[in-house]
């Protein structure tokens, strides 16, 4: 079997491009036009590869790397081998990410799966749908009446775009996704299997549970990324909103009427209950659970596996179950550990008697 490489690096990137991206000058004597043909981890990088290092755990790997050029933080620069050109900068990982996007532009968002552009054979587009020039629709995709899709957007195979859904320009709608009752901005990425705009979970409880019609929408603003198999329910009476630049991982559940601010980060396994608001720049670690009707303040960070059951002030760092400020959480954990240790000592002394 051939060793297939799914992403082919672009040509034309040089050592001087790396230095320019980092905002620094190349070390004296380095050939600025020396080409870069790929990017690789420290352990496997070769003389024509770009690498980066910004974590003390990889100090040994840095000292033994064969990378031609390496983005590195100031505290680790001295550990670069003589054969590796160090490009010293404050944020090596961010610079590396920007250069990786230039090397492998086709890895930035899902592209056509059928290898063509325009409407593929087997795509089902309703006559009343409006597609701008430059839209690609892969086989098996269904686009309903009144849907509107902007130029440069790719709709993957077997995706379903419901009636009246609007999708902006340069978006990527992954294979097998479903979008209904939703308005998406520009440059939105929806990874395969995501479900957006389905019913929220709303029932008037009683001897028999009466379904509450969910008549809101999902609004997804510009530059949002939504991970595979994530679900975002449409609003019950008001809209569910995902703010500009927010990044959502795989397997996240966002319930009806939730409002998420700009540039939030939501990691895999998170569940956010209905009518909760996340202000701008909030970070939720993996498997965080948030109960309904809460407000998590701007810039707050919640540690993974925590359970949030009350409002969180802006700029806070909370963790635990139930979640609390991290200092209180750490004191609680330390106290429990000491009690357990004392109990263990007491039990051991009792066994001696």
UniProtKB/TrEMBL annotation:
HAMAP family: LpxD (MF_00523)
Enzyme class, UniProt record, top EC level: transferase
Family annotation (SUPFAM superfamilies): Trimeric LpxA-like enzymes (SSF51161)
Protein name: UDP-3-O-acylglucosamine N-acyltransferase
E.C. number: 2.3.1.191
A GO molecular function held by the record: UDP-3-O-[(3R)-3-hydroxyacyl]-glucosamine N-acyltransferase activity
Family: Belongs to the transferase hexapeptide repeat family. LpxD subfamily.
Species this protein is from: Methylobacterium persicinum
Top-rank taxon: Bacteria
Keywords, in A-Z order: Acyltransferase, Lipid A biosynthesis, Lipid biosynthesis, Lipid metabolism, Repeat, Transferase
CDD domains in UniProt: LbH_LpxD (cd03352)
Complexes and interactors: Homotrimer.
Catalytic activity: a UDP-3-O-[(3R)-3-hydroxyacyl]-alpha-D-glucosamine + a (3R)-hydroxyacyl-[ACP] = a UDP-2-N,3-O-bis[(3R)-3-hydroxyacyl]-alpha-D-glucosamine + holo-[ACP] + H(+)
Pathway: Bacterial outer membrane biogenesis; LPS lipid A biosynthesis
Keyword check for Oxidoreductase: no
Xref: PROSITE patterns: HEXAPEP_TRANSFERASES
Domain UDP-3-O-[3-hydroxymyristoyl] glucosamine N-acyltransferase non-repeat region residues, every copy: 35-100
Function: Catalyzes the N-acylation of UDP-3-O-acylglucosamine using 3-hydroxyacyl-ACP as the acyl donor. Is involved in the biosynthesis of lipid A, a phosphorylated glycolipid that anchors the lipopolysaccharide to the outer membrane of the cell.
Active site as annotated: 256 (proton acceptor)
